[in-house]
Protein backbone atom coordinates (compact mmCIF):
# COMPACT_ATOMS: atom_id res chain seq x y z
CA UNK A 1 0.00 0.00 0.00
CA UNK A 2 1.42 3.36 -1.01
CA UNK A 3 1.83 6.10 1.56
CA UNK A 4 0.90 9.69 0.66
CA UNK A 5 3.79 11.51 2.33
CA UNK A 6 2.81 14.92 0.99
CA UNK A 7 -0.21 16.04 -0.96
CA UNK A 8 0.01 14.22 -4.33
CA UNK A 9 3.41 12.66 -3.50
CA UNK A 10 3.34 8.94 -2.69
CA UNK A 11 6.03 6.65 -1.27
CA UNK A 12 5.89 3.43 -3.31
CA UNK A 13 9.24 1.92 -2.28
CA UNK A 14 10.17 -1.06 -0.15
CA UNK A 15 11.49 -0.96 3.41
CA UNK A 16 13.99 -3.80 3.70
CA UNK A 17 14.18 -4.89 7.33
CA UNK A 18 16.06 -8.06 6.40
CA UNK A 19 19.13 -6.86 4.50
CA UNK A 20 22.35 -7.05 6.52
CA UNK A 21 24.87 -6.91 3.68
CA UNK A 22 24.71 -4.41 0.85
CA UNK A 23 27.43 -5.43 -1.60
CA UNK A 24 29.82 -5.97 1.30
CA UNK A 25 28.68 -3.05 3.45
CA UNK A 26 27.07 -4.19 6.71
CA UNK A 27 23.56 -2.78 7.01
CA UNK A 28 22.81 -3.57 10.63
CA UNK A 29 19.72 -1.39 10.66
CA UNK A 30 18.38 -2.62 7.29
CA UNK A 31 17.69 -0.27 4.41
CA UNK A 32 14.98 0.92 2.05
CA UNK A 33 14.67 1.40 -1.68
CA UNK A 34 12.61 4.54 -1.91
CA UNK A 35 10.59 5.23 -5.02
CA UNK A 36 7.95 7.88 -5.48
CA UNK A 37 4.85 8.61 -7.51
CA UNK A 38 3.67 12.18 -8.13
CA UNK A 39 0.11 13.05 -9.16
CA UNK A 40 -0.47 16.04 -11.39
CA UNK A 41 -4.12 16.29 -12.38
CA UNK A 42 -5.01 13.04 -14.13
CA UNK A 43 -1.38 12.20 -14.93
CA UNK A 44 1.35 10.59 -12.84
CA UNK A 45 5.14 10.71 -12.75
CA UNK A 46 7.05 7.71 -11.49
CA UNK A 47 10.43 8.29 -9.86
CA UNK A 48 12.81 5.30 -9.69
CA UNK A 49 12.08 1.65 -8.88
CA UNK A 50 13.15 -0.87 -6.22
CA UNK A 51 15.48 -3.88 -6.05
CA UNK A 52 14.12 -6.57 -8.32
CA UNK A 53 13.05 -9.08 -5.61
CA UNK A 54 10.60 -6.49 -4.31
CA UNK A 55 8.95 -5.69 -7.63
CA UNK A 56 5.56 -7.18 -6.61
CA UNK A 57 5.35 -4.84 -3.59
CA UNK A 58 6.29 -1.89 -5.77
CA UNK A 59 3.72 -2.79 -8.41
CA UNK A 60 1.00 -3.22 -5.79
CA UNK A 61 1.94 0.14 -4.28
CA UNK A 62 1.63 1.88 -7.64
CA UNK A 63 -1.68 0.17 -8.37
CA UNK A 64 -3.03 1.35 -5.03
CA UNK A 65 -2.66 4.92 -6.32
CA UNK A 66 -3.33 4.92 -10.04
CA UNK A 67 -3.96 3.06 -13.25
CA UNK A 68 -0.59 2.26 -14.84
CA UNK A 69 -1.66 3.70 -18.18
CA UNK A 70 -1.97 7.11 -16.52
CA UNK A 71 1.77 7.25 -15.81
CA UNK A 72 3.11 9.75 -18.32
CA UNK A 73 6.71 10.11 -17.16
CA UNK A 74 9.15 7.67 -15.63
CA UNK A 75 12.20 9.41 -14.15
CA UNK A 76 15.26 7.21 -13.64
CA UNK A 77 17.61 9.16 -11.40
CA UNK A 78 20.22 6.39 -11.17
CA UNK A 79 20.72 3.00 -12.83
CA UNK A 80 22.38 1.00 -10.04
CA UNK A 81 20.17 -2.09 -9.59
CA UNK A 82 18.94 -1.16 -6.10
CA UNK A 83 17.02 1.62 -7.89
CA UNK A 84 16.54 0.37 -11.45
CA UNK A 85 16.37 -3.38 -10.78
CA UNK A 86 12.62 -3.40 -11.39
CA UNK A 87 12.95 -1.15 -14.44
CA UNK A 88 12.55 -3.92 -17.07
CA UNK A 89 9.62 -5.39 -15.14
CA UNK A 90 7.63 -2.18 -14.65
CA UNK A 91 8.55 -0.61 -17.96
CA UNK A 92 6.41 -3.08 -19.93
CA UNK A 93 3.34 -2.03 -17.88
CA UNK A 94 3.74 1.62 -18.87
CA UNK A 95 2.48 2.04 -22.44
CA UNK A 96 2.18 5.81 -22.18
CA UNK A 97 5.27 6.70 -20.17
CA UNK A 98 8.22 8.65 -21.47
CA UNK A 99 11.43 7.57 -19.74
CA UNK A 100 13.58 10.45 -18.44
CA UNK A 101 17.22 10.02 -17.44
CA UNK A 102 20.49 11.92 -17.62
CA UNK A 103 22.46 11.59 -20.86
CA UNK A 104 24.79 9.15 -19.13
CA UNK A 105 21.77 7.45 -17.55
CA UNK A 106 20.27 6.69 -20.98
CA UNK A 107 23.58 5.16 -22.03
CA UNK A 108 23.92 3.06 -18.87
CA UNK A 109 20.26 1.95 -18.96
CA UNK A 110 20.95 0.59 -22.43
CA UNK A 111 24.08 -1.15 -21.15
CA UNK A 112 22.09 -2.83 -18.38
CA UNK A 113 18.83 -3.77 -20.07
CA UNK A 114 19.86 -5.21 -23.43
CA UNK A 115 16.66 -7.18 -24.01
CA UNK A 116 14.48 -4.10 -23.70
CA UNK A 117 16.71 -2.25 -26.15
CA UNK A 118 16.48 -5.13 -28.60
CA UNK A 119 12.71 -5.27 -28.14
CA UNK A 120 12.59 -1.63 -29.25
CA UNK A 121 11.02 -0.42 -26.04
CA UNK A 122 13.40 2.50 -25.58
CA UNK A 123 11.74 4.68 -28.18
CA UNK A 124 10.18 7.05 -25.70
CA UNK A 125 13.25 8.10 -23.84
CA UNK A 126 14.47 11.60 -23.04
CA UNK A 127 18.03 12.41 -22.10
CA UNK A 128 18.19 15.49 -19.88
CA UNK A 129 21.10 17.72 -19.00
CA UNK A 130 21.71 20.23 -16.25
CA UNK A 131 18.88 22.73 -15.93
CA UNK A 132 16.48 21.00 -18.30
CA UNK A 133 12.90 21.23 -17.11
CA UNK A 134 9.82 19.08 -17.53
CA UNK A 135 6.30 20.43 -17.02
CA UNK A 136 4.27 17.41 -15.91
CA UNK A 137 1.06 19.42 -15.66
CA UNK A 138 -1.12 20.95 -12.98
CA UNK A 139 1.61 23.39 -11.93
CA UNK A 140 4.28 20.79 -11.24
CA UNK A 141 7.65 21.36 -12.90
CA UNK A 142 10.77 19.24 -12.59
CA UNK A 143 14.28 20.62 -13.04
CA UNK A 144 17.07 18.10 -13.51
CA UNK A 145 20.58 18.39 -12.12
CA UNK A 146 23.10 15.66 -12.95
CA UNK A 147 25.33 14.87 -9.97
CA UNK A 148 27.93 12.64 -11.61
CA UNK A 149 29.60 10.17 -9.20
CA UNK A 150 27.08 10.66 -6.39
CA UNK A 151 27.00 7.75 -6.82
CA UNK A 152 27.64 6.70 -10.43
CA UNK A 153 28.42 8.72 -13.52
CA UNK A 154 24.71 8.65 -14.46
CA UNK A 155 23.34 9.95 -11.15
CA UNK A 156 21.06 12.97 -11.14
CA UNK A 157 18.65 14.69 -8.81
CA UNK A 158 15.16 15.85 -9.77
CA UNK A 159 13.94 19.08 -8.24
CA UNK A 160 10.18 19.58 -8.28
CA UNK A 161 8.21 22.74 -7.69
CA UNK A 162 4.49 22.21 -7.24
CA UNK A 163 1.44 24.38 -7.80
CA UNK A 164 1.67 25.74 -4.25
CA UNK A 165 5.32 26.67 -4.65
CA UNK A 166 6.54 23.76 -2.54
CA UNK A 167 10.04 22.58 -3.50
CA UNK A 168 11.02 18.94 -3.27
CA UNK A 169 14.39 17.44 -4.16
CA UNK A 170 14.36 13.79 -5.17
CA UNK A 171 18.02 13.23 -4.41
CA UNK A 172 18.46 9.50 -5.03
CA UNK A 173 21.62 8.17 -3.30
CA UNK A 174 22.71 11.60 -2.07
CA UNK A 175 21.75 12.28 1.56
CA UNK A 176 20.54 8.69 2.01
CA UNK A 177 21.06 6.25 4.84
CA UNK A 178 20.83 2.48 5.03
CA UNK A 179 18.08 2.50 7.62
CA UNK A 180 14.79 0.63 7.80
CA UNK A 181 12.03 2.54 9.56
CA UNK A 182 8.25 2.65 9.46
CA UNK A 183 8.41 6.43 9.86
CA UNK A 184 9.37 8.32 6.73
CA UNK A 185 10.40 11.73 8.10
CA UNK A 186 13.66 12.76 9.78
CA UNK A 187 11.85 14.42 12.70
CA UNK A 188 9.83 11.26 13.40
CA UNK A 189 12.99 9.25 14.08
CA UNK A 190 15.99 9.46 16.41
CA UNK A 191 18.21 12.07 14.75
CA UNK A 192 21.41 10.62 16.22
CA UNK A 193 20.63 7.25 14.58
CA UNK A 194 19.85 8.89 11.24
CA UNK A 195 23.09 10.87 11.34
CA UNK A 196 25.12 7.79 12.32
CA UNK A 197 23.71 5.93 9.35
CA UNK A 198 24.16 8.91 7.00
CA UNK A 199 27.79 9.08 8.14
CA UNK A 200 28.36 5.35 7.63
CA UNK A 201 26.69 5.59 4.23
CA UNK A 202 28.99 8.44 3.21
CA UNK A 203 32.10 6.63 4.48
CA UNK A 204 31.31 3.36 2.73
CA UNK A 205 29.73 4.58 -0.50
CA UNK A 206 30.85 8.13 -1.23
CA UNK A 207 34.10 8.84 0.61
CA UNK A 208 36.40 8.24 -2.37
CA UNK A 209 34.25 10.63 -4.43
CA UNK A 210 34.68 13.51 -2.01
CA UNK A 211 36.51 15.77 -4.47
CA UNK A 212 33.62 15.58 -6.91
CA UNK A 213 31.05 15.87 -4.14
CA UNK A 214 32.70 19.05 -2.86
CA UNK A 215 32.22 20.53 -6.34
CA UNK A 216 28.63 19.26 -6.63
CA UNK A 217 27.22 20.42 -3.30
CA UNK A 218 27.32 24.09 -4.38
CA UNK A 219 25.05 23.16 -7.30
CA UNK A 220 22.45 21.58 -5.02
CA UNK A 221 22.70 23.65 -1.83
CA UNK A 222 21.41 26.93 -3.39
CA UNK A 223 18.19 25.28 -4.55
CA UNK A 224 15.31 26.42 -2.33
CA UNK A 225 14.77 22.92 -0.98
CA UNK A 226 12.01 22.44 1.58
CA UNK A 227 11.78 18.67 1.32
CA UNK A 228 14.48 16.19 0.41
CA UNK A 229 13.47 12.67 -0.61
CA UNK A 230 16.46 10.35 -1.02
CA UNK A 231 16.31 6.78 -2.25
CA UNK A 232 17.45 5.18 1.02
CA UNK A 233 16.27 5.83 4.56
CA UNK A 234 14.28 8.77 5.84
CA UNK A 235 13.18 11.89 3.98
CA UNK A 236 14.38 15.23 5.25
CA UNK A 237 12.09 18.14 6.15
CA UNK A 238 13.41 19.44 9.50
CA UNK A 239 17.17 18.85 9.28
CA UNK A 240 18.12 19.72 5.68
CA UNK A 241 20.75 22.33 6.71
CA UNK A 242 22.26 19.74 9.11
CA UNK A 243 22.76 17.05 6.49
CA UNK A 244 24.04 19.57 3.93
CA UNK A 245 26.54 20.82 6.50
CA UNK A 246 27.69 17.25 7.15
CA UNK A 247 28.22 16.64 3.43
CA UNK A 248 30.33 19.79 3.20
CA UNK A 249 32.38 18.60 6.19
CA UNK A 250 32.81 14.99 5.07
CA UNK A 251 33.68 15.91 1.50
CA UNK A 252 36.32 18.42 2.63
CA UNK A 253 38.00 15.96 5.04
CA UNK A 254 37.31 18.27 7.97
CA UNK A 255 37.28 16.36 11.24
CA UNK A 256 35.38 17.23 14.40
CA UNK A 257 38.06 16.16 16.85
CA UNK A 258 41.75 15.21 16.71
CA UNK A 259 41.33 11.50 17.34
CA UNK A 260 43.21 8.26 16.69
CA UNK A 261 42.02 4.96 15.24
CA UNK A 262 43.96 1.77 15.96
CA UNK A 263 42.99 -1.11 13.70
CA UNK A 264 44.81 -4.43 13.74
CA UNK A 265 44.62 -8.16 13.92
CA UNK A 266 46.78 -10.60 15.79
CA UNK A 267 47.90 -14.23 15.54
CA UNK A 268 49.56 -15.08 18.89
CA UNK A 269 48.82 -11.76 20.66
CA UNK A 270 52.13 -9.99 19.99
CA UNK A 271 50.61 -7.45 17.60
CA UNK A 272 47.75 -7.01 20.03
CA UNK A 273 50.22 -6.18 22.80
CA UNK A 274 51.63 -3.40 20.60
CA UNK A 275 48.10 -2.16 19.81
CA UNK A 276 47.15 -2.07 23.48
CA UNK A 277 50.39 -0.32 24.51
CA UNK A 278 49.86 2.34 21.82
CA UNK A 279 46.26 2.75 22.97
CA UNK A 280 47.32 3.19 26.59
CA UNK A 281 49.98 5.79 25.76
CA UNK A 282 47.69 7.79 23.45
CA UNK A 283 44.83 7.65 25.96
CA UNK A 284 47.17 9.01 28.65
CA UNK A 285 47.56 12.17 26.52
CA UNK A 286 43.81 12.85 26.74
CA UNK A 287 43.28 12.16 23.05
CA UNK A 288 40.19 10.28 21.88
CA UNK A 289 41.42 6.87 20.70
CA UNK A 290 39.47 3.85 19.44
CA UNK A 291 40.82 0.33 19.00
CA UNK A 292 39.37 -2.36 16.72
CA UNK A 293 40.59 -5.92 16.28
CA UNK A 294 39.55 -7.05 12.82
CA UNK A 295 38.74 -10.60 13.90
CA UNK A 296 35.75 -9.12 15.71
CA UNK A 297 35.16 -5.77 14.01
CA UNK A 298 33.22 -5.04 10.88
CA UNK A 299 35.22 -3.14 8.27
CA UNK A 300 32.19 -1.03 7.25
CA UNK A 301 32.13 0.31 10.82
CA UNK A 302 35.92 0.66 10.97
CA UNK A 303 36.12 2.74 7.77
CA UNK A 304 33.47 5.06 9.25
CA UNK A 305 35.80 5.58 12.21
CA UNK A 306 38.72 6.06 9.81
CA UNK A 307 36.85 8.91 8.09
CA UNK A 308 36.50 10.69 11.46
CA UNK A 309 40.02 10.10 12.81
CA UNK A 310 43.08 12.29 12.26
CA UNK A 311 45.53 9.39 12.62
CA UNK A 312 45.12 5.79 11.52
CA UNK A 313 47.40 3.19 13.10
CA UNK A 314 47.31 -0.20 11.36
CA UNK A 315 48.88 -3.35 12.75
CA UNK A 316 49.40 -6.87 11.50
CA UNK A 317 51.56 -9.86 12.29
CA UNK A 318 53.58 -11.16 9.37
CA UNK A 319 52.01 -14.27 7.93
CA UNK A 320 53.55 -15.96 4.89
CA UNK A 321 55.77 -12.88 4.32
CA UNK A 322 52.78 -10.52 4.18
CA UNK A 323 49.79 -9.12 6.01
CA UNK A 324 47.33 -11.16 8.03
CA UNK A 325 44.32 -11.78 5.72
CA UNK A 326 41.83 -9.69 7.70
CA UNK A 327 44.24 -6.73 7.69
CA UNK A 328 44.89 -7.15 3.97
CA UNK A 329 41.14 -7.11 3.36
CA UNK A 330 40.68 -3.95 5.43
CA UNK A 331 43.55 -1.98 3.89
CA UNK A 332 42.31 -2.94 0.42
CA UNK A 333 38.85 -1.61 1.32
CA UNK A 334 40.38 1.53 2.84
CA UNK A 335 42.58 2.12 -0.21
CA UNK A 336 39.49 2.13 -2.42
CA UNK A 337 37.62 4.60 -0.21
CA UNK A 338 40.59 6.96 0.26
CA UNK A 339 40.11 8.71 3.63
CA UNK A 340 41.29 12.32 3.30
CA UNK A 341 44.07 14.22 5.15
CA UNK A 342 45.28 11.41 7.41
CA UNK A 343 48.56 10.52 9.04
CA UNK A 344 49.49 6.95 9.88
CA UNK A 345 51.66 4.47 11.73
CA UNK A 346 52.20 0.86 10.65
CA UNK A 347 53.06 -1.73 13.29
CA UNK A 348 53.30 -5.46 13.81
CA UNK A 349 55.21 -8.50 15.00
CA UNK A 350 57.14 -10.95 12.89
CA UNK A 351 59.09 -14.19 13.27
CA UNK A 352 62.04 -15.02 11.04
CA UNK A 353 61.01 -12.72 8.18
CA UNK A 354 59.36 -9.32 8.05
CA UNK A 355 56.74 -8.36 5.48
CA UNK A 356 53.44 -7.17 6.93
CA UNK A 357 54.52 -3.67 7.99
CA UNK A 358 56.13 -3.00 4.60
CA UNK A 359 52.90 -3.97 2.88
CA UNK A 360 50.81 -1.80 5.22
CA UNK A 361 53.08 1.17 4.47
CA UNK A 362 52.74 0.58 0.73
CA UNK A 363 48.96 0.45 1.02
CA UNK A 364 48.82 3.54 3.23
CA UNK A 365 51.01 5.49 0.83
CA UNK A 366 48.83 4.40 -2.07
CA UNK A 367 45.94 5.91 -0.09
CA UNK A 368 47.92 9.16 0.39
CA UNK A 369 48.15 8.60 4.15
CA UNK A 370 51.38 10.16 5.43
CA UNK A 371 53.20 7.38 7.31
CA UNK A 372 55.17 9.00 10.13
CA UNK A 373 56.54 5.92 11.92
CA UNK A 374 56.78 2.14 11.74
CA UNK A 375 57.07 -0.35 14.60
CA UNK A 376 58.29 -3.93 14.07
CA UNK A 377 58.93 -6.36 16.95
CA UNK A 378 60.41 -9.85 16.61
CA UNK A 379 58.21 -12.62 18.02
CA UNK A 380 57.05 -11.57 21.54
CA UNK A 381 57.57 -8.00 22.83
CA UNK A 382 59.42 -7.50 26.11
CA UNK A 383 57.93 -4.87 28.47
CA UNK A 384 60.64 -2.37 27.43
CA UNK A 385 59.72 -2.89 23.76
CA UNK A 386 56.27 -1.57 24.55
CA UNK A 387 57.36 1.88 25.68
CA UNK A 388 55.91 4.06 22.91
CA UNK A 389 56.36 7.44 24.58
CA UNK A 390 58.59 8.80 21.81
CA UNK A 391 56.44 7.42 19.03
CA UNK A 392 53.34 8.98 20.56
CA UNK A 393 55.20 12.27 21.18
CA UNK A 394 55.90 12.36 17.46
CA UNK A 395 52.29 11.45 16.66
CA UNK A 396 50.91 14.19 18.93
CA UNK A 397 53.26 16.78 17.46
CA UNK A 398 52.23 15.85 13.96
CA UNK A 399 48.53 15.89 14.83
CA UNK A 400 48.78 19.27 16.49
CA UNK A 401 50.83 20.71 13.67
CA UNK A 402 48.63 19.52 10.84
FE1 LIG B 1 21.60 3.22 -3.94
FE2 LIG B 1 24.17 3.83 -6.15
O1 LIG B 1 22.63 3.01 -5.49
Which descriptors would you attach to this protein?
402 residues, alpha/beta, Metallo-beta-lactamase, Chain A, Rossmann fold, 2 domains, 7-stranded mixed β-sheet, 5-stranded mixed β-sheet, 13 helices, elongated, binds MU-OXO-diiron
Describe this structure in words.
By secondary structure, this protein is of the alpha/beta class. The chain folds into 2 domains: 3-252, Ribonuclease Z/Hydroxyacylglutathione hydrolase-like (Metallo-beta-lactamase, Chain A); 259-401, 3-Layer(aba) Sandwich (Rossmann fold), CATH 3.40.50.360. Helices cover 34% and strands 27% of the residues. It has a 7-stranded mixed β-sheet with strand order 1-2-7-8-9-10-11. The longest helix is centred in the middle third of the chain and has 16 residues, at 191-206. The protein is elongated.
Return the CATH topology of the largest domain: Metallo-beta-lactamase, Chain A
* Helix fraction by DSSP (H/I, runs of at least 4): 25-40%
CATH domain class name of the largest domain:
Alpha Beta
Intertermini distance: 54 Å
Query: Shape, please?
Result: elongated
Structure summary, number of beta strands: 23
> Which strands sit side by side, in order, in the main sheet?
1-2-7-8-9-10-11
Q: Cofactors and ligands present?
A: MU-OXO-diiron
Mean pLDDT: 95
CATH superfamily of the largest domain: Ribonuclease Z/Hydroxyacylglutathione hydrolase-like
Class by SSE composition: alpha/beta
Q: Which architecture of the largest domain does the CATH hierarchy give at level 2?
A: 4-Layer Sandwich
**What fraction of residues sit in β-strands?**
25-35%
User: What number of domains?
Assistant: 2
| Biggest sheet statistics | 7 strands, mixed
Individual helix count: 13
Overall radius of gyration: 24 Å
The low-confidence parts are none
